[in-house]
Amino acid sequence: MKWWDALLGRTEPVKPDLDALFALPSAAVTLQAATGLAPTGTGSVCFRSAEGGAFAELERDVTQLLAAGGGPPVEESKDAYGYTWLLVRRTPEQLSDLVTDLHAVNFSLEAAGFGPSLLCSLVVFADESARALALVYLYKRGTFYPFAPLSGQHRDNALELQVRAAIEGELPIEPDLSRWFPLWGAPGL
User: Fold this and answer.
1) 59 and 109 in contact (C-beta within 8 Å)?
2) Mean pLDDT for the chain?
3) Which of 36, 44, 88, 114 is a Cys-bridge partner for 109, taking CB atoms 3.0 to 4.6 Å apart?
């Protein structure tokens, strides 16, 4: 059947590799050395909420899980497109803990059958001159891309390409630039 699918141009969807998130701390060291951008300690997960009590209960459980044991409180917000964002804050030195928190949210949603609702996760970086950058993990593609917003809904394309060149050996980078979606107003960015 694979031959027939290839003939018709059908491909199997890429399976997300949530463990790729754990490569972020080492990529952050490379990123800081190459660009001066350091972790800010903020990260978020974006997903489309599903209707029903099961999803609402899961969302509550995930939020409580992250805040348990003196962990950071989770800030929930909705954007103009109806997506839900869970923002987690840690100290900049706790990037590994932040990545673990983001992985836990993604894994919990996926394990409960809500994987198709996941859009992306992002971790925010900044430098001394207040340039901001997010490394965005596209759940459905299993890849990362840099997003560097400027004021007025403009992007710093040169910085994004510089970051791609710096970390492409450490993270699976999205090769299709048309999939490097702007995340205007993303929490924490």
Assistant:
1) no
2) 87
3) 114
Q: Which two tokens stand for residue 65?
A: 């899980």
Do 151 and 142 meet the contact criterion of CB atoms below 8 Å apart?
no
Q: Compute mean pLDDT per 10 residues along the chain, 189 residues long, and list them.
A: 54 67 95 96 89 73 71 82 90 94 88 86 95 95 96 94 96 96 92
The phi, psi pair for 183, rounded to 5°, reads -115, 60
**Cα-based distances in Å from 41 to 16, 25, 95, 97, 103:** 24, 11, 6, 9, 15
Q: Which residues on adjacent β-strands are paired with residue 158?
A: none
pLDDT for the residue numbered 160: 97
Is the Cα torsion angle 116, 117, 119, 122 positive or negative in sign?
negative
* Angstrom distances, CA of residue 38 to CA of 42, 105, 106, 149, 152: 11, 23, 23, 16, 23
Q: Are 90 and 72 in contact (CB under 8 A)?
A: yes
Backbone angles phi, psi at 9, to 5 degrees: 80, 15
Taking only the tens place, the pLDDT of each residue in 85-135 is 989 999 999 999 999 999 988 888 888 887 888 999 999 999 999 899 999
Helix ranges (DSSP H) in the chain: 2-8, 24-35, 53-67, 95-109, 157-167
Q: Which residues pair with 154 in a beta bridge?
A: 150
In angstroms, the CA 30 to CA 58 distance is 36
pTM of the entire structure?
0.86
